[in-house]
Amino acid sequence: MKSDLAARRLAELGNVTRLDIFRLLVRAGHDGLSISEVRDRLDIPMSTLAFHLRGLVQAGLVEQEKVGRTVICRGGFGALQELVGFLQDQCCQGLPALPAAKRKQGVA
Fold first, then answer.
1. How far is CA 33 from CA 6, 16, 22, 62, 72, in A?
2. How far does Cα 19 stand from its chain's mean position?
3. What is the per-residue pLDDT for 91?
4. Listing from the earlier edge strand, what are the strands of the sheet with 70-75?
5. Among 21, 29, 33, 100, which lies 20 to 30 A Cα-Cα from 45?
6. Residue 60 burial (C-beta neighbours within 10 Å; 0-12, 13-18, 19+)
7. Where are the beta strands (DSSP E) in the chain?
8. How far is CA 30 from CA 27, 52, 66, 99, in A?
9. Which pLDDT score, from 0 to 100, does residue 104 have?
10. What pLDDT is recorded for position 97?
11. Which of 93, 89, 63, 103 is nearest to 6 (CA)?
12. Residue 39 backbone phi and psi in degrees, to 5
């Protein structure tokens, strides 16, 4: 995953309403919830929900499927796994030593 995509996904989750939507859909699992169920469970206006869902869908964090006249929303589990993997990718591997010239710049 590239840093710009990771930053976009993290930015989408950096809003309380979008984070609540995402967490609700993750709890719902692979069955997902209809848009009206999300609205009812979070008690937010439909226009607000539509705005926040649009960003989550564009970032790949929410997937939508039309079933008849109902739109089902599901957490983007693949995107979530990619994001967590990106964040953990080089965990605890240590850092290379800085060249001497760079070390001297950091000293006040």
1. 25, 19, 11, 11, 5
2. 8
3. 85
4. 33-34, 70-75, 62-67
5. 29
6. middle
7. 33-34, 62-67, 70-75
8. 9, 20, 15, 50
9. 66
10. 83
11. 89
12. -60, -45
d(CA 39, CA 20): 11
Alpha carbon distance 86, 6 (integer Å)? 7
> Can you state the angle between helices 16-28 and 35-42, rounded to 10 degrees?
120
Q: pLDDT digits over 11-42, tens only?
A: 999 999 999 999 999 999 999 999 999 999 99
pLDDT beneath 50, residues of the chain: none
Q: Say how far apart CA 102 and CA 87 lie, in whole Å.
A: 26
The pTM for the full model equals 0.84
